Amino acid sequence: IVVVQIIACIAIADCIFGFVHWLEDGYGSPSWAVIGPNVIQPNILHHFDSSHLTHHSWLYNARGPIAATAVAVVGAAALGVMPWQFTVVAALGINGNEFHMWSHRAPRNNGKIVTLIQRIGLLQSPQYHAQHHGGQKRTHYCTGTVYVNPILDKVRLWSALEMIIFWTTRVRRRPDPSLERGANRNAPTCTAVSCRPTALAL
Is 161 exposed, middle or buried (0-12, 13-18, 19+ CB in 10 A)? Predict the structure, then answer.
C-alpha cells in the first residue's frame, strides 16, 4: 500500500508540474510585477532557447517552487493537516524545475544515475521532453515522468481548461512569440537576476 501511495504522490506531483507549466506557457504578462520578470519572461525565453534553464543553479531554478511550497506548507500546518504524502509531494515539487532541467541536458552532463532513472521513465529523457518543444508547444506539459502526459493529452485537459477560462473570463491564451515569423528577433534577454523583453509584442 505504501508503494502505491508513493506512486500516487509522484503522479500528483507530475500533474502539478504540468498545471504550473501550462499556466506559465499560456497566461500572465511579462509586465506584471515580480511574476513578470521572474516567471513569465524566463518561460518565454525558454521557448526560444530551451538550454537557458540549464545555465542556472538549483537554488535559482527552485526559488519559485520553494515559495509556492512554503505557502502550501504554512496553509497545511494551519489546518493541522500534514501527512507524509504531502511531504513527499512537496519535496518533489520543490525539485520540479531540476527534473525539467535534466530533460534538457545530455546524458554526459546528467551522470549515470539520472540517466538510468530517465531510461526507465521515472524521469523524462531529453528525447521525450522534446515533444513539448516541437510543433505548437501545447502538449506534454508535465515534466516529471513519461506516464502522466499521455493520459492528460488524450483527454485534452489543457484545451478544456483554456475553453473554461475563456468562457468564464473572456481571457484568451497568450500567444507564444517563439512561434511567430522572425521569432529570434523577438527573444527576451535574461541575466542571472531577471529578464527583460526585446521587441516582444505581448
Answer: middle
* Per-residue pLDDT tens over the stretch 51-95: 888 988 999 999 999 999 999 999 998 998 889 999 999 999 999
- pLDDT digit string, tens, across residues 139-149: 999 999 999 99
Per-residue buried b or exposed e for 30-42, using 16+ beta carbons within 10 Å of the residue's own CB: beeeeebbbbbbb
Q: Which residues pair with 189 in a beta bridge?
A: 196
Rounded to the nearest 5°, which phi and psi values hold at 118? Answer: -70, -35
pLDDT in the model for residue 82:
85
DSSP characters over the chain: -HHHHHHHHHHHHHHHHHHHHHHHHHS--TTSTTHIIIIIHHHHHHHH-GGGGGGS-HHHHHHHHHHHHHHHHHHHHHHT---HHHHHHHHHHHTHHHHHHHTTS-HHHHHHHHHHHHHTTSS--HHHHTTTTSTTS-S----S-SSSHHHHHHTTHHHHHHHHHHHHH-PPPPP-GGGSTTGGGG--EE-SS-EE-SS---
Q: Strand, helix or coil at 43?
A: helix
Strand stretches in 94-152, DSSP E: none
> Does this model's pTM top 0.90?
no
